[in-house]
Amino acid sequence: MRPYRRRLSIESKASKAGRPREEAYERLILQAGYEELATNGLSHFSVAAVARRSGVARGTVYLRWPTREDLIVASAAVISLHIVSPPEGNLEGRLRFLAAELADAFARPDALRVLLRIDADRELQPALFRRIYSFLQGSTNKVMMACVRDAQASGEIRADVSPMVFTRAFVGAMFVEALSKVPTRRVDKDFMDSLVLLMAAAVNLPDSP
């Protein structure tokens, strides 16, 4: 009965506190969903377990995410929330910025575990996997491909370079390197610098001023 009373107390405070309290609930729920994905993957993901982990009533969870699948996608998206567009500059500088962003995302506690759990269930939950994959890759790829296209428009790199292939090669290399860094999952600066220089040379990026 104690968890039930706790949830009622939380909700009663929410009604008085307004939007800031609601945003705090959302953070609690998404963090709990993220932890649930890391533990149980897609197939055994439980909304009830998320409610227990977050200390929020299940009905409150469903008010924000009407379906289990909606909550799973939102929970998985926690990994990419901090990947932002780099500041203006040449492609090399922007790639260094994005490499650091990816390193931070992959080093987040349980981030790679969540990604691997999702991948392990891809054949059991193909539609849901595609939805998550599209969302996660879409947000990151959009930022990176925009940088490649900007560099092409400014004449920094060749026009025949595929922004998608470039992006997949860059993100894939960062991902594999993060997997190899046990237990920290932190990609070191030397690797990031070498990757940026390698990718720059592959597309004929001129020397930075």
Distance between the termini: 66 Å
Number of strands: 0
User: How large is the share of residues in beta strands?
Assistant: under 5%
Taking Cα atoms only, what radius of gyration do you get, to the nearest Å?
20 Å
CATH homologous group name of the largest domain: Tetracycline Repressor, domain 2
What general outline do the C-alpha atoms trace? elongated
Q: Report the biggest beta sheet as strand number plus sense, adding barrel if it closes.
A: none
**What is the architecture of the largest domain at the second tier of CATH?**
Orthogonal Bundle
> Helix proportion of residues, in percent?
over 70%
Q: How many structural domains does the protein architecture include?
A: 2
Mean pLDDT: 87
- The helix/strand series, from N terminus to C terminus, equals HHHHHHHHHH
CATH class of the largest domain: Mainly Alpha
Counted by DSSP, the helix tally is: 10
CATH topology call of the largest domain:
Tetracycline Repressor, domain 2
Class per helix and strand makeup: mainly alpha
**Which residues sit in consecutive blocks of at least 5 with pLDDT less than 50?**
1-17
